[in-house]
């Protein structure tokens, strides 16, 4: 059973109500309509400056209101280092509110982009939100013009391997001399689904599409360096390819250093790079958001949907639908630090790459891992940010530092993680990567559907030092996993995997509950593929047409308890 020190979670209702009440404030003073400042929908004119003027007039308690229709953003603004079309900074108790039609968002914020390979990396963000408190963004469609993705059916492959030709679908763009980034193969079913092969291209691929036969909508891809294409054996004539015009660069939105943030009723049909980077926020509610193509492109974006890093407080993701995103729709992570010097039995210097404004307070915690990968948590008495001899923290603890802690011992701190994250009632379909990367503590997944991600649906553990830590107190409950994990992540294949792939080898995940889930059609790998994990309870799960239920690495795990597993097909193996 789970150890007694596992935190007891507050009710989901309490989390929702706290976020909604905090974000709404006492009253809304006025509606400031963007049209009154010259931002007229559907006129094709640049609305950047008009929206800037409207935002300048928004005071505490106001709502910036957009009418139904398309708002065009062509020029951009620069705020400090932020290059964006809409800049929302240091506002208190406001809403950015679009119109609705039959309950769905009807205000389109259309970012005009240049898909030239030399320019696409430095595109302005459609919106930057920083330093605000009690802010709501709702009823918005976030889109690009032209769309930053395309797709088509393979019609011919060079027998020698140097080119591939695709008939682009009728409703998608044919743009000469564009890239083939984050490309995937699809089976021509109705609707199309991923072919069970690796992604055809990763990131910014050195290939260029050229129009081969405009009348018949045929484009040809060749390698920029005259090399053979390295994926032609993975996709056949008659199957489909999707690709993007960019994979790296600025996100579509950046949301940082806010308190009580709500994003709700948002539709995203197309993304270039990632949709939003949420970091260093306190209390976040994301609700009723849809990522789904509205044409034949199948794929929506070339990077993450929500990249959430080093947030705090409570986070709730509820009723979100994500389909066709490349490289991990939801990423939850914080950062490792490491001990630089143990100064005395209760004082040490830790190196953390974090803002100087965020330091542990009395009662927060510092966590070390012992040689068995078990966390040792000690409360902080005091701390301060230091820049020398290293950038990080000088910390005094309330108890003695274990004698096995030395310079370079990895650490994590509660101040750089949410108190609670809940992801519930969400649907993930045909995403090229893992649906959720869970690289910190205190996360509950509940009532979600995971359908055919190329990699594991849920990944626990850690990656490189800046990309997450091995978490404690994680629950995966009452969810459905269908045909997941055949592509693998870090060498592990399965629907749920745990692994520490970091340079720090001691940490393990701890206190994990996997209960009441259904795994269906897991034909490659195991439904659960577990390494670097202590104290895990697996119970009351159902397995249908699963070749292997649970795979456990005995060298890096301890106290894995399995109970009451229903199956129609499947085996249990301990390797």
TrEMBL record:
SUPFAM superfamilies: Pectin lyase-like. Transmembrane segments: none annotated. Keywords: Lyase, Signal. Gene3D superfamilies: Single-stranded right-handed beta-helix, Pectin lyase-like (2.160.20.10). GO terms for molecular function: lyase activity. Residues 1-29 form the signal peptide. This is Pectate lyase superfamily protein. The lineage of its organism: Bacteria, Pseudomonadati, Planctomycetota, Phycisphaerae, Sedimentisphaerales.
């Amino acid at each position: 059973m789970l150890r007694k020190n596992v935190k007891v979670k507050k009710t989901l209702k309490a989390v929702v109500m706290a976020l909604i009440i905090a974000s709404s404030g006492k009253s809304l003073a006025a509606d400031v309509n963007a049209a009154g400042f010259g931002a007229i929908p559907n006129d094709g004119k640049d609305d950047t400056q008009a929206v800037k003027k409207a935002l300048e007039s928004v005071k505490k308690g106001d709502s910036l209101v957009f009418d139904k229709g398309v708002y065009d953003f062509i020029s951009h603004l620069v705020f400090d280092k932020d290059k964006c079309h809409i800049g929302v900074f240091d506002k208190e108790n406001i809403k950015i509110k679009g119109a609705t039609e039959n309950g769905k968002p009807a205000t389109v914020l259309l970012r005009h982009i240049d898909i030239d390979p030399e320019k696409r990396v430095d595109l302005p963000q459609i919106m930057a939100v920083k330093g605000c408190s009690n802010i709501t963004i709702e009823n918005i469609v976030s889109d690009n013009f032209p769309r930053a993705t395309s797709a088509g059916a393979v019609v011919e492959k060079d027998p020698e391997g140097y080119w591939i030709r695709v008939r682009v679908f009728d409703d998608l763009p044919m743009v000469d001399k564009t890239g083939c980034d984050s490309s995937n193969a699809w089976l021509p079913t109705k609707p199309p689904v991923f072919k069970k092969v690796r992604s055809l291209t990763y990131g910014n691929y050195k290939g260029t599409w050229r129009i081969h036969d405009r009348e018949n909508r045929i484009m040809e891809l060749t390698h920029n360096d005259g090399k053979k294409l390295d994926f032609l054996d993975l996709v056949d004539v008659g199957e489909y390819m999707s690709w993007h015009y960019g994979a790296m660069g600025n996100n579509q939105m950046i949301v940082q250093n806010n308190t009580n943030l709500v994003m709700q009723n948002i539709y995203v049909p197309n993304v270039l790079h990632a949709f939003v980077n949420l970091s260093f926020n306190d209390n976040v509610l994301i609700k009723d958001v849809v990522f789904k193509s509205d044409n034949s492109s199948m794929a929506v974006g070339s990077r993450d949907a929500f990249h959430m890093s080093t947030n705090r407080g409570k986070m709730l993701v509820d009723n979100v639908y994500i389909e066709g995103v490349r490289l991990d729709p939801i990423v939850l992570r914080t950062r490792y630090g490491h001990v630089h010097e143990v100064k005395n039995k209760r004082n040490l210097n830790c190196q953390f790459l974090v803002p100087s404004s965020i330091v542990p307070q009395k009662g927060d915690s510092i966590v070390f891992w012992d040689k068995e990968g078990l966390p040792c948590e000690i409360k902080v008495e005091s701390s301060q940010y230091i820049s020398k001899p290293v950038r990080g923290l000088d910390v005094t603890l309330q108890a003695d530092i274990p004698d096995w802690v030395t310079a370079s011992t990895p650490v994590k701190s509660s101040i750089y993680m949410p108190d609670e994250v809940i992801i519930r009632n969400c649907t993930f379909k045909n995403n090229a990567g893992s649906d959720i990367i869970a690289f910190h503590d205190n996360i509950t997944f509940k009532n979600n559907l995971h359908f055919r991600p190329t990699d594991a649906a849920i990944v626990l553990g850690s990656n490189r030092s800046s990309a997450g830590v091995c978490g404690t107190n994680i629950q995966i409950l009452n969810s459905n996993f269908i045909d997941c994990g055949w592509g693998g992540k870090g060498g592990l294949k399965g629907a749920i995997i745990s692994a520490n792939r970091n340079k720090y080898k001691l940490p393990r995940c701890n206190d994990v509950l996997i209960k009441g889930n259904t795994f269906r059609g897991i034909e490659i790998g195991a439904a659960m593929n577990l390494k670097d994990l202590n104290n895990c309870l697996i119970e009351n799960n159902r397995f249908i047409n699963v070749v292997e239920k649970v795979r456990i690495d005995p060298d890096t795990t301890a106290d894995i308890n399995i109970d009451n597993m229903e199956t129609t097909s499947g085996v249990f193996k301990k390797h």
